[in-house]
Amino acid sequence: MRLYIPVATGIEASVKRELSRLGYGEAPAIRGRIALEGGWEDVARLNLRLRAGERVLLGMGEFPAPTFDDLFAGVRALPWEEFLTPHARILIDGKSFQSRLMAIKAAGGVVKKAILTRLKEHGAPQFDEKGERAIVGVSIFGDVATVTLDTSGDGLHKRGYRVLTYDAPLRETTAAAIVEDSFYGRERVFCDPFCGSGTLAIEAALYARNIAPGAMRTFDFTAWKCAPPVLAREREAAKEEVFRGELAPIFAGDISPRAISVAKEHAMRAGVAGDIRFSLADAGDFTSVEKYGVLAANPPYGERLGEKRELSSLYKKFSRAFHALPAWSAYVITAYPEFERIFGRATRRRILYNANIRCGLYFYFGEKPKEGDKR
Length: 375
Ligand SMILES: C[S@@+](CC[C@H](N)C(=O)[O-])C[C@H]1O[C@@H](n2cnc3c(N)ncnc32)[C@H](O)[C@@H]1O
What we know:
alpha/beta, VC0802-like, Rossmann fold, seven-stranded mixed sheet, 10 helices, 14 strands, binds S-adenosylmethionine
């Protein structure tokens, strides 16, 4: 089966790296997604284990669709009856680029009609849409339609641990991509001194413990007719691979008592509360004698007038604290435009979007441990 992993702008390299670590080779990201071949075990495995990828889509077919008639015929020719019952709740997610069929809403209607026609031709009596959810993707590029079924359902950033609301949280998949791209490993100290609801520290702990981020949730494909019951076995296999040894300390701090209580609750739900040391503290006071640590942070960037001066002194203090740490690396995601002027020129930078806000991700690579150095 052909599978596609959609990836958000700026985190393509992290998803490629994690796919390669999971044994799926080195596929390029084309038009915002990475294609690979796999079976139902891979569908289960990828849904459970991907940290930075957004979803796992199953490729149903690809065909020329310069007109609505071609789109209807192409979709109707696909074996929907093998996947869906007459009760399926079909939702259409459409996109079109550089194609004649740009009226994507109308194209979505055509796709749904073609699926229902096909199901009717294969014996479905009537449709009540009270059953399993089926998110059908239609992406038309250069007059060629790619039709997919979303095996994940809810996006993979929904791990299940973030139950409380908090201002400006980082998307879990973005936090995981930052951890994936960093020098972090379970033998290094990690700190997020602006932890908010705890996302970066929790994703670091899940990574260090090799806990599958999807372990606590379910996925749409399990309700489809033809999907074999592979998820339970893959869940068990993932449990066996959890690292149960000692980790170097993971610190999470924030100046807000509410942030600390939200982050603790989330860490507890993610099963990593015992791995994170929380403290009510000012980020500018963070210090450590440990070498080669990893500082990952998503400081406030202030949308309101009048915050600018406050922010400048906050960033200056944070910069002094980081530059005093021995051989640490820093990974900072912020939309604050003055960031590099205050913190220093980054070794590398990337553009990301968090909640539709254009942010920079700034990398400051510290020294690597010398032979014989513990951390
Ligand atoms: C953008 S939010 C971080 C959101 C977080 N990444 C998450 O996923 O929920 C910024 C956080 O910085 C905290 N903060 C502001 N000034 C601080 C300071 N001087 N020291 C520590 N934390 C501070 C705020 O309370 C807020 O929780």
